[in-house]
Fold Polygalacturonase.
Amino acid sequence: MGLSLKFKTNVLSAIVILGILSLRVAECSSHAEKLVYQALNCRKHTAFLTDFGAVGDGKTLNTKVFNSAIRNLSGYASDGGAQLIVPPGKWLTGSFNLTSHFTLFLEKGAVILGTQDESQWPPLPVLPSYGVGREAPGGRLSALIFGTNLTDVIITGNNGTIDGQGSIWWDKFRAGKLKLTRPYMIEIMYSNQIQISNLTLLNSPSWFVHPIYSSDIIISGLTILAPVDAKNTDGVDPDSCSNVRIEDCYIVSGDDCIAVKSGWDQYGIKVGMPTQHLFIRRITCISPYSAAIALGSEMSGGIQDVRAEDITAINTESAIRIKTAVGRGGYIRDIFARRLTLKTMKYVFWMAGNYNQHPDSNYDPKAIPEIKGINYREVVATNVTYAGKLAGIKSDPFTGICFSDMNITMNLKEDKLPWNCTDIDGVTSNVTPKSCASLPQKKDVTCLFPYDKQPIEDVQTKTCSYAH
Ligand SMILES: *[C@@H]1O[C@H](CO)[C@@H](O)[C@H](O)[C@H]1NC(C)=O
Ligand SMILES: *[C@@H]1O[C@H](CO)[C@@H](O)[C@H](O)[C@H]1NC(C)=O
Ligand SMILES: *[C@@H]1O[C@H](CO)[C@@H](O)[C@H](O)[C@H]1NC(C)=O
Ligand SMILES: *[C@@H]1O[C@H](CO)[C@@H](O)[C@H](O)[C@H]1NC(C)=O
Ligand SMILES: *[C@@H]1O[C@H](CO)[C@@H](O)[C@H](O)[C@H]1NC(C)=O
Ligand SMILES: *[C@@H]1O[C@H](CO)[C@@H](O)[C@H](O)[C@H]1NC(C)=O
Ligand SMILES: *[C@@H]1O[C@H](CO)[C@@H](O)[C@H](O)[C@H]1NC(C)=O
Ligand SMILES: *[C@@H]1O[C@H](CO)[C@@H](O)[C@H](O)[C@H]1NC(C)=O
């Protein structure tokens, strides 16, 4: 079964046909076994990137090939869908667009390389909930792998690699030479039923994985690596999304490993789409200048019902950081985290109500964010400089904060107050070292972690197989 290409001999010379045939033979010997993988949906039709004339030498640009292959396979959306298999090789490309009922599968040894030729990254309009380009007012560039208005889209593989070759973008950003906001590695917007799994993602120009205005999303088994000094290389940024599961990822990056967002100031308030029902588990994070999990700073559409468990962070600036400011509006509420293992942290917990970066000067100074119901428990942290730096907003305190069962071992070389709390209100229980006066110790309180499951926790994948 699958897709066979019917070449018109009147337009193709015999030499081209022979060339393609010999490529196919060489390729068949290199991928001998059958593919077996887990996915939300399996596909009826299969094609290889090489069927469409791709060249995997790391030098030939394949942007047109990716786009035309996926356009071709979109024709099977209503007939069981299609998968595009990327074989071993180095496939240089600019931005390309995904389609519905579609799987992009990267075999072991397949590397998609983002080109450093800027003309291959087309501009896109700014995101409505941001109003402006985040890094330059003129707009933004399309992600390497982009999808919009889709349903049922999967990017997976046997740990194949996507390498954004981001260094040119990091250099431009540092030099203040960007004309448009840097591209992300993968961005999917206005879509549902999304799976991104079992891949290695390297060196994104900016954020790695950015689902926005989307729902029913599983992100699993990703190894995400960028130099820790590469600015804004966030790992996964669920942004105005519902029903999201992020699990079994290993992230080393130059910004937050997971950054939960929902739009920026007046633009985010107007769009009004929260990120909610987000479940994060079994994540390992190394990020010396940022957080394992950040909530904000763009949170103007609201963030609620976020649950995180079994998080490991090593040499990370903070474990969970809440960032907001006057002008954001929105809320961060019903946040639950448990079983955190932390080693070498500047701040275990950090909350800041003064993250005063704004899209423009037209933000509403009366748009006060509500931060309420923050529950963290079962935390073991060692070699910590500050246990908590918790600063709400004057006349808008952060309330309902609960910390229980925490053993935080301070870095003894530092002679600092472990906790510093201003404009916050809540309780602590069985927390060492003893917290500040605004979080009084109560006896044997266990902070809440909900017993009911979020619907995304029960979503199962199917076993898909394809023999070639
Ligand atoms: C990812 O790979 C792991 C181990 O190789 C496997 O157990 C898991 O099912 C895969 N997950 C998906 C979603 O493909
Ligand atoms: C995909 O391309 C092949 C080869 O050109 C063609 O035979 C087939 O009809 C195309 N499929 C669709 C859905 O366009
Ligand atoms: C990809 O999608 C964007 C947004 O819809 C569109 O502007 C662009 O033309 C598409 N690119 C291709 C190659 O189809
Ligand atoms: C995509 O969906 C959004 C939100 O529903 C809608 O505003 C937009 O027009 C759609 N775009 C396309 C190309 O269908
Ligand atoms: C995937 O590849 C990365 C990079 O080579 C490696 O660190 C990771 O352990 C691999 N993951 C799996 C499940 O094999
Ligand atoms: C903290 O240490 C105490 C005393 O050793 C121990 O009983 C408790 O289980 C520890 N808490 C956690 C969350 O590991
Ligand atoms: C403890 O943290 C400090 C930074 O505060 C770091 O320089 C040092 O290497 C860490 N020690 C260990 C044993 O990890
Ligand atoms: C505590 O934090 C406040 C506000 O962030 C700061 O002004 C103050 O200096 C800090 N206090 C100590 C003792 O570090």
